[in-house]
Design brief:
With 278 residues, the protein is of the alpha+beta class. It folds into 3 domains: 80 residues, Orthogonal Bundle (Arc Repressor Mutant, subunit A), CATH 1.10.10; 81 residues, no CATH class; 113 residues, no CATH class. It is 41% helix and 17% strand. It is built from 12 helices and 12 strands. A 4-stranded mixed β-sheet has the order 4-5-7-6. Strands 1-3-2 form a 3-stranded antiparallel β-sheet, sandwiched between helices. A 3-stranded mixed β-sheet has the order 10-12-11. Helix 9 packs parallel to helix 11. It is elongated and about 70 Å long.
């Protein structure tokens, strides 16, 4: 296929042929104008002109200003092609540390039953929300100290992206329920993966993050589902302050106050029990 791609690029001249062959060899299906300049040693204007001509010939798809996709040879010419959205997320993060998180990680870990239409990315730099190639990307800024609980997720045999592990995904969902569809969605993931989740790791992550709402919600859910005993939960209880938080911040401030975990239970125990039934 690489030989066919070389034949396809010959009509664009040696610089274009060099660009597309090297991008294919590097498995860089998504690339920037900076990449073009680095490979071809062309000026910014010449690099932009080269890519524009390639786009007209159907060799690349423009995702956003300065960001492009290679169109696979087998799709033919003049084809709009968008690569894997998770690879695009990696490109949008640039050189900053990142990992796919929240609702996206829930879906990739198969901890949710409903598809997620937004790609959530935790990143150590501020990146504005944007739509690229028809996908919505939402970035959650974190500090370098909050960059933990990360693993590789392989797109294919050669390409991977970084993603929060299952335990970190639960913790992030408890911190930002709006980015996972609410507390009941986190509870579903917790229950679905109860046999493989590392409870000690969950507790360690909650203590490391040090966010009071996460401590309250995690302690309550682990206790409610019988996934941790009182001794294991004691470190979390020692972190509690007198302040009360809503179990689900997306819902109105109503329901009983549960002093043990300093929570207002605006999601009832019966609603959480329904999660067990699938």
């Amino acid at each position: 296929m690489l030989a066919k791609y070389k034949l396809q690029t010959k009509t664009l001249g040696p610089r274009a042929a060099q660009l597309f062959v090297e991008l294919n060899q590097l498995r860089r299906s998504t690339f920037t104008l900076t990449d073009v300049g680095a490979i071809t040693h062309l000026s910014s204007a010449s690099a932009r002109n080269l890519v524009h001509k390639a786009q007209q010939r159907g060799l690349v798809t423009r995702l956003k200003p300065g960001l492009y996709n290679l169109v696979p040879f087998e799709l033919g010419r003049a084809t709009e092609h968008v690569d894997n959205p998770y690879l695009i997320a990696r490109e949008l993060a640039g050189a900053a540390a990142y990992f796919l998180s929240h609702g996206t990680a829930l879906e990739l870990h198969r901890m949710v039953t409903q598809p997620n239409l937004t790609v959530y990315v935790s990143c150590t730099r501020r990146v504005r929300p944007q739509t690229v190639g028809g996908y919505d990307f939402r970035f959650i800024q974190i500090t370098s100290e909050q960059e933990f609980g990360v693993m590789k997720h392989w797109i294919d045999k050669e390409r991977f992206v970084l993603i929060s592990d299952q335990e970190r995904t639960i913790i992030d969902g408890l911190r930002h329920p709006a980015f996972v569809g609410g507390i009941t969605e986190v509870a579903k993931g917790l229950w679905m993966k109860r046999d493989v989740l590392n409870v000690k790791r969950l507790l360690d992550y909650a203590q490391r993050l040090g966010v009071g709402a996460v401590v309250r919600r995690l302690g309550y859910l682990l206790e409610h589902y019988g996934l941790a005993d009182a001794a294991a939960l004691e470190p979390l209880r020692n972190m509690l302050t007198a302040t009360y938080q809503r179990l689900d911040p997306l819902l109105p401030a109503e329901g009983v106050f549960f002093s043990k975990w300093r929570l207002q239970l605006n999601v009832t125990p019966e609603e959480l029990d329904a999660v067990r039934l699938g």
